[in-house]
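ok trying again, last paste got cut off:
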Amino acid sequence: MLQTGPAGLKALTKAYDNGHALPGFVVYNLETVQGIVAAAEANPGRPVLIQAGSSPFKHAGREALMRLALDAAAASTASVGVHLDHSRDLDEITACLEAGYTSVMVDGSHLPFAENVALTRETVRRARDHGAWVEGELGALAGDEDVSVNASASTAAMTDPAQAAEFVAETGVDALAVAVGNVHGFTAEPVRLDLERLSGIRAEVPVPLVLHGASGLPAEQLRAALARGVAKVNVNAELRRAYLQAVGTALPAALPGSDAVALWSAGRDAVAEAASRVINQLTGA
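nice, full thing came through this time. structure:
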């Protein structure tokens, strides 16, 4: 069922209160959506987010992917929210809110502080009219949402705790994405989070924190982040890798008969398995 209205925000705040995290799974097509829903249904009582956002829209088309995600969430027996990830466009944000998205992330991290505040504040105003919650971002992450990065990648501008407190107070966001050494995509060397900085942010900020770039993060680092106020974790590269590896393995047998369905099914099932592992990691199961 779709996590509409207060239920969506409650899933986030409950995770925060319990030291758990809400998984935000980025999707690109039918099979990745189906895989996430299957994982959610296999783990009842653990809400998830389908993140159909700006970058995947370039592949699938905004209207098509919006409707696919929303319809799948509404039809599911699990608690599923639909989240707009990394949007810099108020028109895109508004379109998703009007379509029924349960939450949106406005990414003004590339802007000067005052402009980021203004963009985020306006997003919060529009989201309130639709019963949706808002994630803002302060600080900048290295890497690309859609591909892995090299070992030298590092966070471009880490989040300042005092500025984060000002940002949250000025904008009214419900959650804050932070830069504490996390990187989009896989890296050749393990990522080490600045846990002292993360603790400082939590001490100053009264809302749940969000960690982007969690794929490949060492388990002890992830646990430490959850203990320091991270209540939403984005997962993308881990699902992409699982999907592609499964398709690659299935291809030799499928190719002679042009069995495309076997490939799509293998990719979908691999996403479901990977997502289930993440759900269990983030909920302490």
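cool. Residues 6-283 form a domain with the TIM Barrel fold (CATH 3.20.20.70). The longest helix spans residues 260-283.
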